[in-house]
Design goal:
This protein is α+β, with helices and mostly antiparallel strands. A five-stranded antiparallel beta sheet has the order 1-9-3-6-10, with helices on one face. Strands 5-4-7-2-8 form a five-stranded mixed beta sheet, with no helix packed on it. Strand 4 and strand 5 form a beta hairpin. The longest helix is centred in the middle third of the chain and has 23 residues. The radius of gyration is 22 Å and the shape is globular.
């Protein structure tokens, strides 16, 4: 798998959820902080998004997409003025009407485990606004169009189609941010051919007996060149990244499956359950058994 797919798969839990919001006139609703990621797709009309904590209000138009990758609380409203009038999103049952244009949005959430989030996702800003611009991000635009039709028509199979389209939307939103980001380090990481080749190798077979020499040969450069470029861009040496990624994969398997610890250890590149347990405890501060049972953990 590639880095973006792995980064999302490692933290995603269950299926995304969504609600259709159609309002008009004067309205204002608050969405509380969420242990995951939120998103909005403007299907018709326009509105404002006001982040919690004094962030700059963002104007949203028809076809715009916005991702809140860290689950930040925020307000959606017809105007960016007094947000104290906001009612909880769950209570927004008022039908469209009144003075002012009608607004229709698809609002939803992705359930994500932020405890071991990949650095690619960690560096996403609190609000990722992707305006509807002619010629920009055609894949994202296609996904938005498909979502709009699926929400409107609710044809047979919609219960499977809608979550799948929402998963696709998340990938396209992250891709679009990487294309437009002027400050993130990971767009630079994945545009560097040497680092990309090394990451692709590690993610394709994380359990392989990797060494710096073998990984450098895979990337087609010297060991020194790989170490210098990888560390400068990724923020940690190749083998340190591999260790972290193996343990992240092990944590995901422990969370999502009942596979025996020996199987989890083999898949993560550890020869014995004891070796995995020692490394896991050092990284996350809890044994694999306690982690699986729901013990608290914190990533470094």
């Amino acid at each position: 798998m590639d880095v973006v797919s792995d980064a999302i798969s490692a933290v995603r839990i269950g299926q995304p959820s969504s609600n259709r919001l159609r309002v008009g006139g004067s309205w204002c609703t608050r969405l509380a902080p969420y242990e995951g990621a939120g998103f909005h797709v403007v299907l018709a009309g326009g509105c404002w998004l006001v982040p919690d904590g004094g962030g700059e209000p963002v104007t949203l138009g028809a076809g715009d997409v916005v991702l809140l990758p860290h689950g930040a609380g925020h307000v959606l409203a017809d105007a960016p003025g007094d947000t104290a009038r906001a009612v909880p999103f769950e209570e927004m049952t008022r039908p469209a009407g009144g003075n002012g244009r009608e607004v229709e949005l698809l609002c939803g959430k992705y359930r994500l485990d932020h405890a071991r989030v990949h650095p690619l996702l960690a560096e996403l800003p609190q609000v990722v606004h992707l305006p509807n611009r002619v010629g920009a991000h055609p894949e994202l635009r296609s996904a938005v169009d498909l979502l709009a039709r699926e929400v409107d028509e609710r044809r047979p199979g919609a219960c499977l189609a809608l979550p799948s389209l929402l998963d696709l939307l998340l990938i396209y939103m992250v891709r679009a941010w990487m294309t437009e980001s002027a400050t993130g380090s990971w767009p630079a990481v994945l545009s560097d051919p040497v680092t990309t080749a090394a990451l692709r190798a590690l993610h394709s077979d994380p359990a392989a007996p990797w060494t710096n020499d073998r990984l450098a040969a895979e990337a087609g450069v010297s060991r020194a060149t790989l170490a210098r470029r990888f560390t400068a861009l990724v923020g940690r040496p190749p083998m340190a990244y591999l260790t972290w990624w193996r343990l992240t994969l092990a944590a995901t398997r422990l969370r999502d499956t009942d596979a025996p610890l020996a199987a989890v250890a083999r898949e993560a590149g550890y020869g014995t359950p004891y070796a995995l347990s020692h490394a896991f405890s050092r990284e996350f501060g809890v044994t694999p058994g306690r982690f699986r049972a729901g013990g608290s953990s914190s990533s470094r």
